[in-house]
Specification:
It is a single chain. This protein has 14 helices and 13 strands. It is of the alpha/beta class and 408 residues long. The strands form four sheets. The chain has a five-stranded parallel β-sheet, with helices on both faces. The N and C termini lie far apart (67 Å).
Amino acid sequence: MPRKLPFLVAHLVKNVPYVCRPSVANGIFPSLAVHLNEVKFELIDGTEKEATFMSVNIAPQSSGKSAVNKPVEYILADIVERDKVNREREQEWKDSMNKKGANKEKPKRPDDLCVQVLVSDMTNAAFVQRMNDAKGKYLYTNLEEIELLRQLHTNGTKDVGKIICLCFDNGMYGQERVGTQSVTARVALRWNWNASTTILKGQKFFRGSLVDGTLSRLNISTIIPDKTKPFVYGKYDEQYATELKPYIDRLNGASGTVVCREALRMAKRMLERCQREGDLTGDEVFQDLSYRAVTIAYLKAMVLYIAHGMQWSKEIEKFAEWSLDYDLWCKCHYFGDDMSDEKQKEHVEHKRGRQNMLELLPDTFTEKDVVEVRQRLGLDGDAKNMLRVWVFRKYILKDKETGEFRKN
């Protein structure tokens, strides 16, 4: 990590063990960005984007993956307090519904029951209802285990990759039901979350989503254990909350489209650097991952820019650059080889499309040459019948003395 961090990041990571600080420094952004309401950022391609963060911590067992929980708790304290009031109001409505007889007129559900911080164990209907209630505000969940994503489904399928893509792009999500008591809604998906998993489980979970853009939309972090240093946590108290409050207040107060020219110049430099490194290494996986990784790092810088009172600094810039490299390192380290294998399969499948085998042969060739071409394309080695057809149709001529074939 950079030696000098932006104050907000330094404050949020100071109480966690040293080896956990890189993962916590990335894991705080989903909860920080939940405080932004209808705030957009201009990207280097001229489009606008909201601050969507999906942070996945992939690390060994008992390595401190839960270290992010306490900082997140303090970040979300004001939202949780508001949620508590609305949860109580919702329970009062449910109680009044249960007290009414079957033939009595039921009270209407209040339409301002916004609850932003959701529990990890939820049904799809509850999730859609909360999104509809939020009216454009971001929801947040600490999923703890990445497998909990499978609770949700879109278009009738539990396609985790599709849900992640919709999250990142704020796509439309919802469900339609005919029952009078059922939840029917379709809204833009605004949902930030943290999740963690062990290395093997994480690799298995994403095995079917390696080359469809799912991984590139995630922010991956890890913890590399150091058994020579004991786990020591700092003290979380009123002073910790007091120092954090001004930064949260600035995020809550932001609105509209926020533009920072220094941040845009930084994003362009980062993208150019990634493209240059990709060209020099010939690493197609790195190139595919780098485009959205630059966007994620840029959005982190913009969240910090707002939290620090619209003040750009070298500390924010250095942190964003480090965060980009760290994110790409984790993705390539844990998924790079498998992604390369999948891409190789794609290339082979493309080559095995409809190809003119005659064009793959030299002007003069033998039956053995044809057998080798067929086998290279995944076909059997029996070329006799095909050669007879080619001669009959006058595609080729056969030299009866040498047995060689010549293109006609």
